[in-house]
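Sample entry copied in:
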Amino acid sequence: MDELTFGWEEWIALPDLGLPAIRAKVDTGARTSALHAHDIETFGSTAKPKVRFNVHPIPGREDIAITCSAPIRDRREVTSSNGESEQRYVIETTLAVAGQSWPIEVTLTNRAGMASRMLLGRQALADHITISATERRLQPELSYDFYHDARVRRVAPKRALRIAVLSREDNYSTRRLVEVGEARGHTVEVIDTTRCYMAINAMAPEVHYDGKRLPRYDAVIPRIGASITPYGTAVIRQFETIGTYCVNGSAGITASRDKLHAHQVLASKRIGMPTTAFAASPKDTSNLMALVGTAPLIVKLLESTQGKGVVLAETKKAAESVIDAFRGLKANFLVQDFVKEAAGEDIRCLVIAGKVVASMKRTGAEGDFRSNLHRGGSAKVVRISKAERDTAVRAARAFGLGMAGVDLLRSDSGPKVLEVNSSPGFEGIEAATGKDIVGKLYDEIEARVKPQPVRRRKAG
């Protein structure tokens, strides 16, 4: 390597941590370098522990934070220049200066009051470096501009993420989320939504679990069961308040779960769906049916899932009987036009980040108008039209869902949205299409958790 001369302060980069520009004080009195970090938390297995932490690279700009993670190499007692001792995590990372780079050890400490974000100790000062203690910034100037434009995302390295899956079920979808995430080097923790509880306050909102505050996650993947929608969405709302990226937000899950609300959202966005009507009063039964059209009709409970609580009434008399029965149970329901030409088939489009990543045609079991795979239906890969693709994307966007299963019917007047599912299963569509759907979800999560540029402050 070429000889370098360092002054008592230098611009450096730590590319492995996504820190393209940082000012470091050179401290030959210290053996190991120190990075001033906060929110320092360990995660991962005891065999391969990692540490996640935030760095404010620009002094005085607490609004600019870069989240970093790295394997833990050691835990060491370090005595600072003022005589205070503390246990610090030690990581190894790459130091880059003047087009050269080499590995260094760094300890992590929260010393927010320090003007320099980093101290460079003796171990980091390789043999080809000499020190001129009376001079400052002898190496090429870097700029904090990185943190204010798109370059901060481009230079962000792939890092190990800490991800929570909110699920109460040990099923194919949950297992796949864990397996695929961990195969990518992430730590994926499955959390029973009903065992979460919340500290709700303005200064430090928190989510607790089994007696402990939950750590900061890079992302949350909700797999909220229909039976716990209100509580599950309250937990997601808490993560949103903290600032955690949630694949699906609480508002979108709430709206999509309520059939009436969901159809109102679709109608407001002029998205095609079967003609639908709803009424609370028993006196309105005949008028309600007239709004939808002639029999056969679909009568559907508002909270129905997986085809349960969905009845095909083939005659007007049958429809009246079903409606009377539902009313007798004080159940909320809606009435829908039956799209005959769909012939018991629908199309499930899986939308991730505004793109249809897979689609399958589902056919109902013999004699069943419902095509749900849970009810014995079958599935095969299908090529969808541009109109169907656009409809699925618009439907997911209408609810603000990062991931959604959009069910469409093929009607004579174009695609009709039957349902938007905020917790779509992966087993059927991965088996039918042979695609790694969960991998595509992680592609999006990894892209979304990269740092965002922060606007410059206007001069005084």
